[in-house]
Amino acid sequence: MKKFTVVLLISFLLITSISISMANSTIRVGVPLPLTGPYAHDGLAGTQAATFAVEEINKAGGVLGSQLEMFFYDVEDVMPEKVIASAQDLIMGKKVNVLVTFWVDYGVDVKSYGRFDVPYFSGAASSLSLEAYQEDPNTYWNFFEYNPTEPEYSRQGWVKMVELPYEYPNKKVFVINEDDNWSHVIANTYVEMAESDNWEVVGKETVPIGISEWGGILTKIRATNPSMIFMITLSPISEASFLRQFQTNPTNSLIFMPYTPIAPEFKELAGEFGNGVLWNQLVVNPPTPEGEAFKKAFIERWGEEYWRIDTPVQIWDAMHLWKNAVEAVGKVDSYREIANYIESNPYEGLAGKYVYPKETHVAISGDEYVPAGFYQVQDGMDVQLTPERYKQGEFMIPRWIK
User: Fold this and answer.
1) Which residues contact 246 (CB under 8 A, 6 or more apart)?
2) Domain 10-148+288-354: top CATH class
3) What is the pLDDT, as a whole number, of residue 39?
4) Quick one: three-class SS letters along 121-181?
5) Are strands 347-348 and 278-281 parallel, antiparallel or unpaired?
6) DSSP string covering 336-380, please?
7) What number of other Cβ atoms are within 10 A of residue 79's Cβ?
8) Number of Cβ within a 10 Å radius of residue 240
9) How far apart are CA 235 and CA 262, in angstroms?
10) Quick one: CATH architecture of 151-281+372-390?
11) What is the predicted pLDDT for the residue at 8?
């Protein structure tokens, strides 16, 4: 009887010790990002956003009583072999429990991380990622895209451009895109939108990544005199150099540049030449009291020069959506249950209501869900024009328009 009591006591102490150890162990967060190379500006934004979200979650008690620990991986130029290596390092090597990123690749990421069960949250806004998921949803069920895919940039942007309180002198548009799939899809969708509204596409130019000399294309623009110029690249340097060269002899054209003007580098490089540019982003920090408090806290942590209206709130919402699902399920490694919970339960985040249809695992975009923001650069600041409830100012005719 004494031996039995001793065995019970030892068993109890072992179980208690294991429980305490598990409660005190960290939950591992993998963060693959382009920390060096041509996309390092996005990698820096993702690093700061993920760090801020994890620090704040830990201050509030962590997840299921455990603190979060981050593990970064530099995917550099986001080539497929780098993404595949990041999956092996973070999931197989570091044993992370969740992956969150701004973006690392288009489609390759879904297949690389989808080989495992760890939830993966991406902001790539890529139709290739969606296509990869839809090839085999039963395998890639751990993928969740918090940014709508590329065509939404064009669809929502076109509507906002033609609804501006502005009388276009003609119905001609000139389209420029960088030579990568993401930019191609956005540009091609914009052409479709324009032609469906009986606009004439007077030029469609594809340019190499990182272009800075625009003489030839500007000659074509000046010869066709479009009332709208649409330009999509991933390079703030390219777009800033275009604006500077364009305004030496401008046409009467409104300029719409989806996404890229959001980068602080764009404002710095374009300077006064950026004023008047219109742009959009699909998931943004809203100018609400909650959004302003979030912005203030982020700036206090990193400095105003690093504030962006997209990445901090996107990764914040992704991390808290995951946290909410984990705590509802009760176990951090019940990955399938966590994914099922996210599918079945809308989440009210800072940027809006996240709903992930099983058919896509891409958050629904729209005013009743996660609303897109449409902006104009005015005096070096991004002024939100829509949606109406978040409006911060009025459209201004750019100074280069005669």
Assistant:
1) 214, 218, 221, 229, 255, 400
2) alpha beta
3) 85
4) EECCCCHHHHHHHHHCCCCCCCEEECCCCCHHHHHHHHHHHHCCCCCCCCCEEEEEEECCH
5) unpaired
6) HHHHHHHHHS-EE-SSSEE---TTT-BPPBSTTSB--EEEEEETT
7) 13
8) 24
9) 11
10) 3-Layer(aba) Sandwich (3.40)
11) 35
**Dist. CA 168–CA 186, nearest whole Å:** 22
- Domain ranges (residues) in the chain: 10-148+288-354, 151-281+372-390
- CB atoms closer than 10 angstroms to residue 18: 10
Render pLDDT for 319-344 as a digit per residue (tens, 0 to 9): 999 999 999 999 999 999 999 999 99
pLDDT reported for residue 119: 98
Amino acid letter, 208: P
Q: Say which residue the tokens 């309180």 belong to.
A: 165
Bridge partners of 100, per DSSP, are: 121
Structure tokens, 17: 């010790």
Calculate mean pLDDT across residues 190-207: 98
Distances (CA, A) of 323 to 12, 41, 59, 340, 349: 30, 27, 14, 14, 12
Determine the Cα–Cα distance for residues 392 and 384; give it in Å rounded to an integer.
5
CB distance 94 to 28 below 8 Å? yes
pLDDT of residue 290: 96
Distances (CA, A) of 298 to 94, 99, 228, 311, 376: 28, 21, 36, 11, 23
Peptide bond into 387 cis (omega under 30): yes
User: Hey, what are 79's tokens?
Assistant: 């080539």
List, edge to edge, every strand of the sheet that includes 373-378. Answer: 200-207, 172-178, 228-232, 254-256, 278-281, 373-378, 381-386
- Report how far residue 14's alpha carbon sits from residue 1's, in angstroms, rounded to the nearest whole number: 20
Alpha-helix runs per DSSP H in 232-288:
236-246, 264-270
What average pLDDT score do residues 156-172 get?
97
